[in-house]
Amino acid sequence: MDMLNTYPWISRPMHRRGFDEMMDRLILTPDERGLLEMLFGKFRYVDVDEGEELLQSIVEQLEVWGCNKNNTVFVATRDDSADNDGSVVFLKQLQDHLFEWSEKRFQNLFDFKRKFKIEKNYEKIVVIDDFIGSGFTINERYKMLQAEIAKLKRPRDIYVVALAGMDAAKAGYPFLAQDNVYVPLWLDKTFERNVDKHETQIMDGILTRLNNRNNDSKPYELSKCGFGFGDMTGAYFNVHYRMSDNMLAIFWWGRFKENKDTFHSMFRRA
User: Structurally, what CATH architecture does the domain formed by 48-187 represent?
Assistant: First the structure.
C-alpha cells in the first residue's frame, strides 16, 4: 500500500495486475520487497505530458543545429521494413510535430539503405531511436552512415537523437557524449551488478524463480536480460513505447504458464 500511495501510476489498469502478481506471487521475502521498493524509488515513468516535453525539447535542439525542412532527413534505426519498432513510432511522432515537413524527410534505415542516395538537399542526417540502451545499435547505425557519407564528394552532418538513454552507454561509445548527440533524458543504473553484491544476490533469487517458469511468448534468454541487457539494471518506461530489454526483467518478463497458472508482467515488452 505504501508503494501504491507513493507511485499512483502503478494503479493504472495496464500495470496494476502485474504489480499485484509480483507482490503476491513472486516477491515473497522482506528483502525482496525492500529491493522492489528501492527500484520503484529510482523508476522513471514518462507519461503523456512528460513525453510531449521531451519531444518539444528535441524540436528545439533541431533548430539549434540548423535543421530545417529543406536540408534535413530523419532516419529511424529500424533496419527492417516489416516491424514498427520504437524508432519508427518515434519517427512518426516527430513527423506529427514537424507537420510542415515533407513525408520524404522521414525514413527508416531499411528504406534509406535500399535506395541509398543522399540527395543534394540532404545536408543533415538525423539518426533517431526512442531509447539508447547499451549503445550497440545506435553505434552500428552511426558508423554505417559515416562510411556511406565518406564516399561522397561533399560531406554531410550526422546527428543522433533519442528520447532517453542509459548514461552508462557513453563508457562504451564515447561519441554519445559529443555535441551532435542529443538525449533529453539520460538515466542512471539502479545498481551496479558487480559492485552492489547485496542487491545482486537478492535479484539472483528472484530471477531463479522467473527462470523456473515456462516462457512461452519470448525468445529472450533470462541469463542475458535478467539484469537488463548489458547489465544496465534500468528502470524506465514511456507510455508510448514498449519497455526496453535494458530494463530489469522483473518488470517485463513475459507471460508465464505453469500448468494452468499464469503470471502477468507489469510492462509490455512485445
Answer: 3-Layer(aba) Sandwich (3.40)
